[in-house]
Design brief:
With about 325 residues, the chain is mostly helical. It has one domain. It is about 70% helix and about 0% strand. A two-stranded antiparallel ribbon has the order 1-2. The two termini are about 15 Å apart. Pfam families: EamA. Belongs to the EamA transporter family. It comes from Actinomycetospora endophytica. This is DMT family transporter. Keywords: Membrane, Transmembrane, Transmembrane helix.
Length: about 325
């Protein structure tokens, strides 16, 4: 739930933290694309990202536990759900989409989550959305058509689009779970560090299990990768996606929600799309077309309109 009495003294630092989180999240796609280009499978990239983050967060997690933090009733369930959905599920789906589509297109499909959940909530509750919300949904669909370049007869990679939609479904759980973290005002949820580190452990275990049983391929190589025109060892990509785009990204994201509330933080979180497109252009030479840029602007604006049109007191629709 959002809090109407957010103090101005918390807003400025919160905005800075939210932008840092958007930058860190946005660069995950380009880092992953550099690994995928050398033969890594999407689940392997996701496992490297999550396992690396779990290792990096192990020491601070031990410190938190040594200081006496113990889980309260019901606090372990959010950690498990966080690891299964926003971490394991979203990463595998998003990286799989990046394997078929450009980083910007894959991320924009993922960011249609508010539109998908709007339709789900309407069908479930029977409550008609506000006119501005419906206008935003229509604009988002139109923008997505431009992003996919359908109008010019471009071939649409259906598999990539489906993976992107899967990532969109997983995205819905992120802000709700983050809002309940211990960084929030009520303090009823697990601390942000516990939520992120514990979720990374759970997510790593799930992705590893899926790979071991053969449901999805786990393939990795030691071939050097190319980032920003420079050739670097493969492990550089893994470290960057684990440390910057996972550990730092999720911790700052949870902290931003705690300072700004899920509503404002979700608006600022749209900066991830901009950072992802610019990062993909710079790091892996994925330059969007003019039509795709226009479609991306339309999608981001439409999502902002949807979030603005819903009153702050309304519950955020999430997949259950």
């Amino acid at each position: 739930m959002d809090h109407a009495d957010r103090r101005p003294s918390r807003t400025a630092p919160g905005l800075a933290i939210a932008l840092l989180s958007g930058l860190a999240f946005g660069l995950a796609g380009p880092f992953a694309a550099s690994l995928l280009a050398t033969g890594w499978s999407p689940p392997a990239v996701a496992l490297g990202r999550l396992a690396g983050a779990a290792v990096l967060l192990a020491v601070p997690l031990v410190i938190v536990l040594a200081r006496g933090w113990r889980p309260r009733a019901g606090q372990l369930r959010p950690v498990v759900v966080y690891g299964l959905v926003p971490l394991a599920g979203a990463q595998v789906c998003y990286f799989s989409a990046v394997g078929h589509l450009s980083v910007g297109v894959a991320l924009l499909i993922e960011y249609t989550a508010p539109v998908l959940l709007l339709g789900w909530t309407w069908a479930r509750s029977g409550t008609r959305p506000r006119p501005a919300t419906l206008l935003g949904a229509a604009a988002a669909v139109a923008g997505l058509v431009l992003v996919l370049d359908v109008g010019r007869g471009a071939a649409v990679d259906v598999v990539g689009v489906l993976w992107g939609l899967g990532a969109a479904v997983c995205l819905a759980a992120y802000f709700r779970l983050s809002a309940g973290a211990g960084s929030g005002d009520d303090g009823t949820g697990p601390p942000a560090l516990v939520l992120t580190a514990g979720g990374a452990v759970v997510g790593s275990a799930v992705v590893a299990l899926v790979g071991v049983v053969g449901l999805l391929p786990l393939t990795a190589t030691t071939t050097p990768i190319v980032l920003g025109g420079a050739t670097v060892p493969w492990w550089v990509g893994v470290v960057l996606v684990a440390a910057l785009s996972t550990a730092l990204a999720y911790l700052t994201g949870i902290a931003a929600v705690g300072r700004l509330g899920s509503r404002l933080a979700s608006f600022v979180g749209l900066s991830e799309v901009l950072f992802a497109v610019l990062g993909a252009w710079w790091l892996v030479a994925q330059r969007p077309t003019t039509v795709q840029v226009a479609g991306g602007v339309l999608v981001v604006g439409a999502i902002a309109l949807i979030r603005w049109s819903e009153p702050p007191g309304d519950p955020v629709p999430v997949a259950e």
